[in-house]
Amino acid sequence: MKRVFPNQRTLLIFTGGPGTGKSGTARRFLEYLGNDDIVKISYDEIKEKNWDIFGFDNEKQKDRLNWWCLEEFYLTIQKRMWENKTILIEYPFYQRHKPKLEELIQESGYDAVTVYLYTDPETVYRRGAKRDEEGDRHPGHLLTSYHKETYRPEMLHSISRVAPTFEEFTASISHKEYNINLGLDIPVDVTDFSTVSYEDIYQKILAYESKA
User: Fold this and answer.
1) pLDDT digits (tens, 9 = 90+) for 59-98
2) Which domains does the chain show, CATH number per domain?
3) What is the helix, strand, coil percentage profile of the chain, to 5?
4) Measured distance CA(185)–CA(147) in Å, rounded
């Protein structure tokens, strides 16, 4: 069954702190919708693509490349808005990203929906540690020097990586408000992913856009 929105020109924003499962939740929501016309744009995927193309030799180069990737991310959203596509984006967006996203929404006349994923700090801390241990992330997330053509998996074991304590982790995110609250705001408790109702998210969007 293909599910659509009353307004095709809708920007779906999946946000939340590290470890809240944004990528997986967004993917499952798209599977629920069964709508191949929706365009998914991931800032992380853009970063990983450019890390593989350009590489970096130190933290400063990596930061500079990431800022360039962020501009590509915004331009990609803008291009898809010109094409009148329904768009889904996912990332731990916080107040630093809000002004630019708000500007894009206002200039395009798009409907915005913020799906804010949240759970308790201990849960996200454990999930993040498990993800790093399983090694299923692009190595560019963990390294300060990376070039695809010379990278070897053993490089991850040769670097000194000290996982942050729970206190350090909470301190690093305490100043970030991940619910950027653009358009319709839908908070979703992801303590247990099996209890997330994609039908409920969809129906809230339908009700919101039908009233517009």
Assistant:
1) 999 999 999 999 999 999 999 999 999 999 999 999 999 9
2) 10-211 (3.40.50.300)
3) 50, 15, 35
4) 40
